Structures are given as structure tokens and as C-alpha cells.
Amino acid sequence: MRHGKKFNHLGRTSSHRSALLSNMACSLIEHKRINTTVAKAKALRVYVEPLLTKAKEDTTHNRRIVFSYLQSKEAVTELFRSVAPKIAERNGGYTRIIKTGFRKGDAADMALIELVDFNELYNPNAEEKKTTRRSRRSTTAKVAVEAAPVAEEKVEEAKAESTDSTEEKAGE
């Protein structure tokens, strides 16, 4: 019986499991979403959400704690610089697991695990980028008007050069 044993060992030794979860957490932080099995995704969610909570407060102590779990300077930097400001208002539930079907080779149940605030499709509150657009007609008209005399001058210069070069060849 397994009474009170909530931890999924994923069929690995303790050191292998911690290395697996550390690498998956680094990949999740860097790429914002990864494809894996459902069991690994659920284990990863339990592993990475406390790290995301620690990243909300940027202190040296929290950085060292997160680094002790991730063992990757790039992942820690990405977590504290770009991920933490986006999840600052959220009180948990930083990841989403979406089941994607079964793997072809061994029919393992597959899932997509992603950071909630980095998905544009499911996040309707995301701020859209505001770009200043100018009317195309006015800019293309100005370019066409300015380009016409320049083009005519280039054509005249090219004709003059070609006649000069033919005269030089004839003179030789």
C-alpha cells in the first residue's frame, strides 16, 4: 500500500529525478513551453511553481536558492528578468498543462506544459503592442515623386557613360 505517498518517483533514482526536473525547469523557463509526458509535466509543476514564487522577490538570497535548484545562470537570469515581472500580480497557478494526445511510439499520454502569462492565445488580458502606423499612400506617393527625377538622372548618366565608353573603344 502507498498510504500518504504523494510523490511521483518517475521510475528514477533521486539524483536522476532531480537532474531531470532541473533540466526540464530550465527548458520551461527559457522556452516558455515544452512537450513532455503528463506524469513528468505534473511533477515539473510541483517543482517549478515554488521557484516562480521565489522569483517574484528579487533578492540575492532568493537568487541563490533558485540557482541551487536550476544550476543554470542563464535560466536564473531569464527567470528574474523577464518571467518574474509578468507573474508579479498572480498568486499561484503559473503553469498550465494541456493534454495533447498519445505518443506514436509507445502510446504515452503527452502534454504541453507552459507558463500561463506567456501564451497570447489563452491570455485575453495581454497588452497588445501599440505601433504608430502612417498612411501608406502618402509615404509611397512621396517616394514615387522623389524617385522619378532621380531615376531620370540615373538613366541620362548611364547613357552618357555608355556613349563615352563606346567612343573610347572606337578610339583605341
TrEMBL record:
Residues 140-150 have a biased composition (Low complexity). GO terms for molecular function: structural constituent of ribosome. Keywords: Ribonucleoprotein, Ribosomal protein. Residues 151-172 have a biased composition (Basic and acidic residues). Pfam families: Ribosomal_L17. The keyword Aminoacyl-tRNA synthetase does not apply. Gene3D superfamilies: Ribosomal protein L17 (3.90.1030.10). The keyword Ribonucleoprotein applies. PANTHER family: LARGE RIBOSOMAL SUBUNIT PROTEIN BL17M, RIBOSOMAL PROTEIN L17. HAMAP family: Ribosomal_bL17. Belongs to the bacterial ribosomal protein bL17 family. This is Large ribosomal subunit protein bL17. It comes from Chryseobacterium turcicum. The lineage of its organism: Bacteria, Pseudomonadati, Bacteroidota, Flavobacteriia, Flavobacteriales.
